[in-house]
Amino acid sequence: MSVFVSNSDGLGVVSCDWFALSCKLAHVWDGKPLVAPEGWQCLPMSATAVWGQRWFVMDADGNKVATLLFQPRTPKIPAESANVQIANRFLYYDDFRIICDKVLDILPMAICGLNRVDLCCDFEMTASLWTTYMALAKKDARLKGLGESVCWWKHIPVGVKGDGQGLEEIPNQVNWGGKDSTFKWKVYYKWLELETAPPEEKKPWIQDLWERAGFHSRYVWRVEVSINNPNQLRTLGNDKILPFQWYDDRVRLFSDLYADKFVVRRKQGHVDRRNDEIMPFLEVDGVKSIKHGLPSSSREGSDPEKRLTCKLWSELQQGDVQCNESLVDLLKCNLRQLLERPSNVWVLQRMFSVSMDDIVTALA
């Protein structure tokens, strides 16, 4: 089984299932009602714990197009911040970019990055895949570099087509990743989720996707990775991954993340767990191409010299400091000495996404 976007039988289908942009308003909201594009409407909704303003953007057919969140209720978030979440339905259609442009025109704003993106692959479960999945569900296997899984079980009708007698209990979902994890993975029975959902949450556009792919919907499961704050991720060449790249290049990015992160090993008790047997799951044509660009609680941050390098660089970028010539000269002199150590240059490039030319220019 290969991850691919073609509609051929036996192939997984990659999609983007969540897309939320982090934006900056051109100015703080003036309190006037939002004006939607022609044929659409903007409806004010109740506030959230974080955002004072929550608006639904609806199309002419009454479908929700997007959710706009702005006017933060905490001083920890800048007053001009906004969050734009495109509705799930429109992530599965070709006019996604047109929809985004129309939504972003409702409030004057600039895109700062992505708040969250979910990439997924729908596939038909087979006997061999089920063996690996059950090993994960029963904790007889693990994923490389991830903590313990959490598994949910559910009763479903007996029989492949649900035409048997009675019920059987199956593990319908296995999750990995905690609250603060950049990557949260899960494998779950997508057909069962949609089948048991209330009418307003059925998502027929996903069923349409399966039909076009030639899937028997009863067999369809999903592997999904939810990426929080993808702005901290970089290519191996240290280039930023632009927000819309996650959508336009979703097949390659999912494949590369899957090939690097979703490695299933049977728990065999070896001291060096790299010697544990690899259990096959989806056969994905991908390579490691993504790394963390910004260390969260990294070893670099525990080095006082590296912390000082970052602190001095931050001070040098401040507007009021730039007006003080003697202070600027002092900062530059100290930075030149610190940056004689290559590891300090490296951490500066990672933390501030600057090139060597940027550093040379700033210290000239």
Structure report:
- The chain has helices at about 95-105, 125-135, 190-195, 205-215, 245-250, 250-260, 305-315, 320, 325-340, 340-350, 355-364, and strands spanning about 15-25, 40-45, 50-60, 65-70, 80-85, 110-125, 140-145, 150-155, 165-175, 185-190, 220-230, 235, 265, 290.
- The protein is of the alpha+beta class and about 375 residues long.
- The protein has three domains: about 25-105, no CATH class; about 120-290, no CATH class; about 300-364, no CATH class.
- The radius of gyration is 24 Å and the shape is flat.
How far apart, in Å, are the first and last alpha carbons? 55 Å
Major β-sheet strand ordering: 2-3-4-5-1-6-11-10-9-8
Order of helices and strands: EEEEEHEHEEEEHHEEHHEEHHHHH
Number of helices: 11
Name the beta content range: 25-35%
Total domains: 3
Low-confidence stretches: 1-10, 294-301
The helix content, as a percent range, equals 25-40%
The overall average pLDDT, rounded, is: 85
Structural class: alpha+beta
Compute the CA-based radius of gyration. 24 Å
